[in-house]
Specification:
With about 120 residues, the protein is of the alpha+beta class. It has a single domain, classed as Winged helix-like DNA-binding domain superfamily/Winged helix DNA-binding domain (Arc Repressor Mutant, subunit A, Orthogonal Bundle), CATH 1.10.10.10. Helix content is about 60%, strand content about 10%. Strands 1-3-2 form a three-stranded antiparallel sheet.
Length: about 120
């Protein structure tokens, strides 16, 4: 059972909040897409994603060399509401707006880091 303290600790870091914000906007994202959107090195992004996974907020899926993440589908309703409230609080603010723009730009680019 996931606890509120676990979710709140995971969201207390700015990088993890940025990752959650992007994952809430898409069904699933590859680590390379998240790295590009946040403009942070891959090991740091992967470390923060592992914390989110260990907290029960996200699930990962490996496809060849690539690892894809999504919001955990079995998150309790109150957990989803908490994530939505956090996303609403970030809406229209920096760096979240810039992250979303870079993600949108990388999705339209045929030469993404994911190959």
């Amino acid at each position: 059972m996931i606890r509120a303290e676990t979710i709140l600790r995971a969201l207390a870091d700015g990088t993890r909040l940025r990752l959650i914000n992007l994952l809430l906007s898409k069904d699933e994202l590859c680590v390379c897409e998240l790295t590009e959107a946040l403009q942070i090195v891959q090991p740091k992004v992967s470390r923060h994603l592992a914390i989110l996974r260990d907290a029960g907020l996200v699930l990962d899926r490996r496809e060849g060399l690539w690892v894809h993440y999504r919001i955990h589908p079995d998150l309790p309703a109150w957990g989803n509401q908490l994530l939505q409230a956090a996303q609403n609080g970030c809406r229209g603010k920096s760096p979240y707006v810039e992250d979303a723009k870079r993600l949108a730009g990388s999705e339209s680019d045929t030469n993404t880091a994911c190959g």
